[in-house]
Design a protein that fits this description.
single chain, 366 residues, alpha/beta, Rossmann fold, Arc Repressor Mutant, subunit A, three-stranded antiparallel β-sheet, 17 helices, 45% helix, 13% strand, elongated
């Protein structure tokens, strides 16, 4: 049986229970990984003498029927395997400890020509945490910065949604299961949208369920592909802090959103700040750090306003844009009732378009 070394890796990754270290041992022993398909089984058993069950599974599945079924499933699910032997395998992954031998991708290609910022945090995010994740992700997307996260509930999902709501936004979802699995099931529609506007990736083969121990391991991929990690909300034992540990090993910048000292979901982020993480108050510091490595340009303001603001919000913004203006004068110029205008001004302020000065004076911030 003859298949190339990339296909051998795809086949090996579908051996139930196989680990990176098993493939390491096989590669180191045989040199040419293709030999595994035809070599006497005693050599496989000798190489994996402490992993006899895995050795037996490799021997049992050295057949065309098993291999053909794998590639048919990949084709039927529009999933592309990317191996460490491929020229377009991300260099950011290749240089970390325990790099995945293979990454399965669905959607667009993994982009490394643009900055990628990871946003992670609690699955049980507060309304504030979900709002912050969404807003920061969308603001970064306006600078053509991609967002990478884990497609979990809470902060992850809000981050992906923020990018997708910005035209042209690019996002990567890293799964802790096979790409033919929808996990969590409630994020099915979100996953489908990510595939159109970015990609989902996993080191796990098709059919791999979302096992608990897969998720800490997938966090090293989120960190490795990123140019920095934002932690929105995290309890003291949050899985997001595992991503931070990897990021520190990878030499990445850590940004933490300060939170209420009485909130369980902010204990982890507040401790990160105490221990030296950068305080996340705006995206300015992130942009400044990325500009040393990338050419970053924000989308035109006119286009951003058109996409981001409703007609009535845009009208109020245009009135304020000329010069600092009192709320009473805004009422006179727009004809909008004061009660309705207050809520519009609040939205504009939250979105970062205007600032309120003493005496109900408003001025633009963009």
């Amino acid at each position: 049986m003859q298949i190339d070394k990339k296909e051998v890796l795809v086949w090996l990754s579908h051996i139930e229970g196989i680990k990176n270290r098993d493939i390491d041992n096989l590669v180191n022993y045989f040199g040419d990984i293709n030999e595994i398909l035809n070599v006497d089984e005693k050599h496989i058993k000798r190489t994996l003498n402490k992993r006899r069950i895995i050795a037996n599974r490799i021997i049992e599945n050295r057949n065309e029927e098993f291999i053909n079924k794998i590639f048919k499933n990949l084709y039927d699910n529009n999933i592309s395997p990317l191996t460490i032997f491929d020229n377009d395998y991300p260099s950011k992954l290749k240089n970390i400890y325990d790099p995945p031998y293979i990454i399965y991708t669905k959607g667009k290609k993994i982009r490394l020509d643009i900055p990628l910022i990871a946003i992670v945090g609690s699955r049980k995010a507060t309304p504030y945490g979900n709002w912050a994740a969404y807003q920061f992700a969308r603001e970064l997307a306006k600078w053509n910065i991609g967002i990478i996260s884990g497609l979990a509930l809470g902060v992850d999902a809000s981050s992906h949604k923020g990018v997708l709501d910005e035209e042209g936004g690019y996002t990567i979802g890293v799964l802790g299961c096979g790409l033919d699995q929808y996990y969590p099931a409630s994020n099915r529609n979100l996953m489908d949208k990510i595939i159109i506007n970015g990609c989902i990736i996993s080191e796990y083969c098709l059919g791999m369920p979302p096992l608990k121990y897969n998720f800490p391991a997938r966090n090293r991929i989120i960190s490795a592909l990123s140019d920095g990690v934002i932690v929105i909300e995290a309890s003291e034992k949050s899985g997001a802090l595992i991503t931070v540990d990897y990021a520190l090993d990878h030499g990445k910048d850590i940004y933490a959103l300060p939170g209420n000292i009485n909130s369980t979901q902010s204990k982890g982020t507040n401790k990160l700040i105490r221990d030296g993480a950068k305080i996340l108050l705006s995206i300015d510091d992130i942009i400044e750090n990325l500009q040393y490595k990338y050419t970053i340009e924000k989308k035109s303001l006119e286009k951003t306003i058109k996409e981001d603001l409703s007609k009535i919000e845009a009208m109020v913004y245009e009135v304020i844009k000329g010069s600092p203006i009192n709320i009473d004068l805004i009422v006179n110029k727009t004809g909008i009732k004061a009660s309705e205008l207050n809520s519009i001004l609040t939205v504009l302020e939250i979105k970062g378009y205007i600032n309120q000065m003493p005496g109900k004076i408003f001025t633009v911030s963009k």
